[in-house]
Amino acid sequence: MASFYVSTGGLMCILCGPGAYKVSDCVINMTSANCEKCPKGTFQSTDNQAAYCAPCLGSCVDRYQVVSTPCTSTSNLKCRCKDGYYFKSLSADGLEGHCLQDESKPQSSSAKDFQITKSNVSRCGNSSTSILCKLNRKFPNVTEAEHTWERTVLVAVPVFSLVTSILGFMFLILYYTRKPNVIHRALKR
């Protein structure tokens, strides 16, 4: 069954499928948007109306990871822990962690594959790239560049708020400590 979206012109357009992105909206109601295949090195894993495909990771992010599935137009690079290593979760949701050497099974290859995602996937699995997985749950279909922007905003806004609050507090202190002098001068006139 096709999924639809409402275009800016008010038409019901069929979403682009996995492996493609939207170039323009449909021009006839209930028809497909104008879609193009994702360029090499990019992907879209779901039906979408995205203006571009997400960039694939060039490599696994942990030195104890190996590529289990290369990037395709419909999925990002998938990684797993190297043989002799296992995924150690550091959070309750299982999204934060890293690959550790398996002392009891030095040649173990039973580690699950996990996907390092940059789009909204059903699960991130055993990923050591927790920030991407956590952001993907909050911000589906967002690229790495946009994740960087989100991280910048998440840091900049509280810092700006703190500085503004401190300056406002200092202004109030100065205003109220000088206010009696202003009132005193006005009464002398």
UniProtKB/TrEMBL annotation:
Question: GO: which molecular function terms?
Answer: transmembrane signaling receptor activity
Instruction: Write out the annotated subcellular location.
Output: Secreted
Query: According to the UniProt record, which cysteines are disulfide-bonded?
Result: 38-53
Q: Which SMART domains match?
A: TNFR
Q: What is this protein called?
A: Tumor necrosis factor receptor superfamily member 1A-like
What ranges cover the TNFR-Cys repeats? 37-79
* Membrane-spanning segments: 153-176
Record keyword Transmembrane helix present: yes
What's any one GO cellular component for it? extracellular region
Gene3D superfamilies membership? Tumor Necrosis Factor Receptor, subunit A, domain 2
Give the main location.
Answer: secreted
The species this protein was found in:
Crassostrea virginica (Eastern oyster)
Residues of the TNFR-Cys domain: 37-79
Please name the GO terms of the biological process aspect recorded for this protein, alphabetically. apoptotic process; immune response; signal transduction
- PROSITE patterns, per the entry: TNFR_NGFR_2 (PS50050)
Q: Which UniProt keywords apply?
A: Apoptosis, Disulfide bond, Glycoprotein, Membrane, Repeat, Secreted, Signal, Transmembrane, Transmembrane helix
